[in-house]
Amino acid sequence: MDKLGLNSSTTKTKEDLDLLSVLESLDDSLQQNTQLIQLVKSNLLDENILNEIKTIVSLGTLRLYFGKTMRDLKIVIEDDDREHEIKVQYKGPKHLIISDINLPNSSTHEHEFGCITEITELFNQNVKDLARYFYELENIDEFCTVMEPIVKSFKDTYRRIFLDDRTWLHVEVTPEGFATNIHLVGQSECWHNKLQAGLLHWDHDKNIVDNIMAIFDFSQFPHPTSSTSEVPKMDSEDDNSAACGICLSTSLPDVPGLPLPLCQNSLCGVYYHRTCLYQWLVACAGSRPPAFGVANGSCPTCLQPITCSEKDS
Q1: Average pLDDT, stretch 194-199?
Q2: Could you give the count of Cα atoms lying within 13 Å of 100 in the half-sphere of its Cβ?
Q3: Domains of the chain, residue spans
Q4: 85 pLDDT band (50/70/90 cuts)?
Q5: Which of 57, 105, 179, 190 would you label with 65, given CA atoms 20 to 30 Å apart?
Q6: Separation of alpha carbons 27 and 24, rounded Å
Q7: Which pTM value belongs to this model?
Q8: How much of the chain exceeds pLDDT 90, in percent?
């Protein structure tokens, strides 16, 4: 994107002055050429939004960028050492919408906005409200071996933490910074028993990482080694061990994530997409929706008892 604004400073750089000259020239042209006015209003930006951009640039209070067209804008909000990008599309006068944002999903993102200032004021407050959420995710990323998401961001509200070569811990973080929907990905009786006992003693005065360490009695988190599993790679379709035992594929267009060892039987070794396994178990039970979104039945491969939740993340 082409840069419109720099850091929050009143000092003007040559780049700022050049941009102001361009905007002023455009403004002069709009005043003198009726045909050009209609062109800009129909295909670019209206006069009010251009004036707002000029003001933002002249004050140097916000970092602002153009995208591929003048209708595509990127706003950068700074928060301590973090930068949060908000991509905005101009749909018409007083009609701005959020096209993409590196923050957890919120109904706020679906609002229509009348101006850039309205967007920045709302999301500046949103970022402040998410302070503990940012802290907890950054803490997990720093001290744990995170297997998924492979490319971590604040938009992803979950983390999957390595416990051993067959078991990961799934943790979601609420916007308020609290852990929720904590469960195992893969089955292990040892980890399961520790998790169930430990959740009863969860200390909300401690951060998420400290609670997990207490639950599993870790002095430090385990890491994959050459003898254990590596971080899954999206191009591993040729690895038969990573193919789903039901659909026989590694990745599917409408199925997020890779197949995982969901069977508790350590001798089974077959991987499944959670969605595939869930649908299989529901179908085997007569297609009746299971209570609480958890399907029970037998592993399609080894026939040992197995459970699978409908919602993975």
Answers
A1: 88
A2: 7
A3: 2-129, 132-231, 239-313
A4: very high
A5: 105
A6: 5
A7: 0.62
A8: 29
